[in-house]
Amino acid sequence: PYPIYEEVRARGPLSRSTAKLWVSASHDICGQVLRDRRFGVQMRAEDQRSGSPQLSFLEMDPPEHTRLRRFVMPTFSPKAVASFDGQITEIVTGLLDAVPAEGRFDLVAGYAAPMPIAVITRLLGIPDANSAEFQRYGATFGSALGGLQSLKHARELFEAQRQLRRIFIDLCELRRTEPGDDVISRMVAAPDTQVGPDDLVPLCTLLLIAGFETTVNLIGNTVLALLERPEAWRRVAEDPSLVDAAVEETLRFDPPVQRTARVAREDVELGGLRVAAGDVIITMIGGTGRDPQVVDRPDEFDLDRSHRDHLAFSAGLHYCVGAPLAKLEATIAVRELIARFPDLTIDGPGRRRAGSLIRGLASLPVRIRRS
Ligand code: HEM
């Protein structure tokens, strides 16, 4: 997608794509749009009618947005998340122990994908999260984020949506009588005025999908960037404190969520242009990380950058609630992988996932040489 962002940028920081649609790959303009309350997200209600999953407060403007976001925030605050460190490390260690002692394995299917899924399902307290059905529903749902791909996909999505709804309704019921130490138990215990029963299923779905479909790509994209640059891989292997920099640089250089959008709630003057109420702006997050206005040598992956002002987790009201968790997961996953297999190499071409919204790998064959 990166050459496309360059083309967009060549047309100016903000340009019109069609009558009511604008595009921007400028870090400055996208940052402004995402932080400006005169832009909202409400147009996504129309997308929903076309069959996309409902994603709770990600698709709401204040005041509904505020109520639900405030409710989940404490669970995912940096402090709360730091306490998951032990659980995450345990999950990662278990996955690494299962990797064959020597030879080839798929880094995505064998490591990057199951790890965040295990974490989010554990946090939500979902029993049987390892079942093949549950994994399939989650994957079908997640793949719908970039839009429906075929009629077959639409049918699968409908079925997955029905099943997940059932699972979450049953689970909410169960946690009302048998609360545990999980997010759903907290939600059902809250007074009805805060979070009603109709909020619960979309909220669970949002948290589940956010955990299923994003962090896997941050882990995969970071490992790929390092393995493609043996010098960078070696430096991180020798100095694990650089893992943090590698994850941050990947969020700039190759972020899992490539774009989002906002709708103008009133006429807005932006970059010298007039955006009319109702117009939509596509903010190309993946392009903003390579904006030469704010980053030197933008197409170079560089562990020594100090630039941390990327928009990979968006900005403003909808700034990713899971950012501290995602960063912690990716840091632990990459650190433990390199510590265990410092001699890992790429072994054959990987495959990118379909769609342009989520950027990541469907597979990455790697080889372990044990010394
Ligand atoms: C929102 C990216 C992981 C929960 C967002 C948005 C982005 C994003 C770009 C905002 C979209 C917009 O402004 O329109 C990412 C990336 C992740 C990640 C790149 C991993 C590397 C997670 C995880 C969770 C999560 C693990 C689990 C809790 C959420 C929620 C929102 C959100 C609840 C909605 C926030 C709101 O609308 O106020 N994420 N996310 N994310 N993310 Fe994440």
Automatic annotation (TrEMBL):
Q: Which GO terms describe its biological process?
A: cholesterol catabolic process
Report any Pfam family annotated for this entry.
p450
Q: Which GO MF terms does the UniProt record name?
A: cholest-4-en-3-one 26-monooxygenase activity; heme binding; iron ion binding; steroid hydroxylase activity
Domain of life, source organism: Bacteria
> What PROSITE patterns does the entry give?
CYTOCHROME_P450 (PS00086)
Q: Which UniProt keywords apply?
A: Heme, Iron, Metal-binding, Monooxygenase, Oxidoreductase
List the PANTHER family hit by this protein, alphabetically: BIOTIN BIOSYNTHESIS CYTOCHROME P450, P450, PUTATIVE (EUROFUNG)-RELATED
Q: Which family does it belong to?
A: Belongs to the cytochrome P450 family.
Question: Know the name of this protein?
Answer: Cytochrome P450
Q: Which organism is it from?
A: Microlunatus phosphovorus (strain ATCC 700054 / DSM 10555 / JCM 9379 / NBRC 101784 / NCIMB 13414 / VKM Ac-1990 / NM-1)
